[in-house]
Amino acid sequence: MPDLPDPFVLGTRGSALAMWQARHVQASLEAAGHRVALEEIVTTGDRILDVPLAEIGDKGLFTKQLDDALLAGRIHLAVHSLKDLPTRLPDGLVLAAVGERAAPWDAFVGRPGVPVALEALPEGAVLATSSLRRRAQLRAFRPDVQVVDVRGNVDTRLRKLDEGDWDGLVLAEAGLLRLGLAARITHRIDPAVMVPAVGQGALGIVCAEDAAGVRQTLHAALHHAPSAAAVTAERAFLRRLEGGCQAPIGAHARLHGGRLRLDGLVAGLDGEPLLRGSMERTPGEAEALGAALADQLLGHGAGAILDEIRRAHGA
């Protein structure tokens, strides 16, 4: 194996959740005998906090500056929430490993002191989210609620909930659990109500494509094959639909009985129309599974839904 860097320089965003993820990867690499130094990098998505994500665009919103550092050789690996990682990486970069997936689900966080379940909220309740996917599914489930935009890291969003007059937030369950905030979860949202984001709950570790030794080391120390099969199917689904990270597209794949099952969703901005589909194949056919389910939904009108959303957001 070619000479390895000593230490590995790991690039990460600076939020509490991103640092948790980086330190988790750091600990795994150090357990395998490697020294690791962390380098904090500010991304476009971290700097622009007063504009809804859908209006900024999602071309590497939380990844471009980390990509640039990798390509320039300033860092040796970058750690991402896989749901933030574009399905097509820049030339010269590769997804070296997929970490073991945590809970992929969305969680409802109710207003403090009012632990009311999502389905029991009063008519006209106000819910906050930055995600078009969550907004669409909330509106499909509860067309009577108001959905408002919120930006910022997990702590910032929780503080806004505590200090404001919203009735609740929707956040990724995995992020809350990783930050020790399980007590803030009112309840997990049933996947029949809300299909998760592509890659939600998993970590993606990226390195330079030509760094063979680094790539092999990361794969050996960090890669979790069952999680990788699931997210490969989900990312293939998203890629075939040509939907970005902010489109109202959901997908969740999991292994059961030696088969890989994928559930997928495409929705209009207010939850109408809403298309769902499911399909199974072997784990070795994960890429083909994602593309096939996307083709099924495209055959039922998903393309027209997504075209309308792109026009609405000037894409």
Which terms would index this structure?
alpha/beta; 315 residues; 5-stranded mixed β-sheet; single chain; 11 helices; globular
What string gives the helices and strands in order?
A: EHEHHHEEEEHEHEHEEHHEEEHH
Strand order of the biggest β-sheet: 2-1-3-10-4
End-to-end Cα distance? 44 Å
The beta-strand count equals 13
Gross geometry: globular
Computed structural class:
alpha/beta
Mean pLDDT: 91
Rg (CA only): 19 Å
Helical content (DSSP H or I, runs of 4+) = 25-40%
Regions with little confidence, pLDDT below 50 for 5+ residues = none
Largest sheet: 5 strands, mixed
Taken as a percent bin, the fraction of beta residues is: 15-25%
Per DSSP, the total helix count is 11
Question: Mind explaining what this structure looks like?
Answer:
- The chain is an alpha/beta fold.
- It has eleven helices and 13 strands.
Mind sketching the topology for me?
Elements: E1 8-12, H1 16-31, E2 36-40, H2 44-47, H3 53-56, H4 64-72, E3 77-81, E4 93-98, E5 106-110, E6 126-128, H5 132-141, E7 146-148, H6 154-163, E8 168-172, H7 173-178, E9 187-188, E10 203-208, H8 212-222, H9 225-241, E11 249-256, E12 259-267, E13 274-281, H10 286-299, H11 302-312
Parallel strand pairs: 1-2, 1-3, 6-7, 6-8
Antiparallel strand pairs: 3-10, 4-10, 5-8, 5-9, 11-12, 12-13
Summarize the structure.
This protein has helices at residues 16-31, 44-47, 53-56, 64-72, 132-141, 154-163, 173-178, 212-222, 225-241, 286-299, 302-312; strands at residues 8-12, 36-40, 77-81, 93-98, 106-110, 126-128, 146-148, 168-172, 187-188, 203-208, 249-256, 259-267, 274-281. It is an alpha/beta fold and 315 residues long.
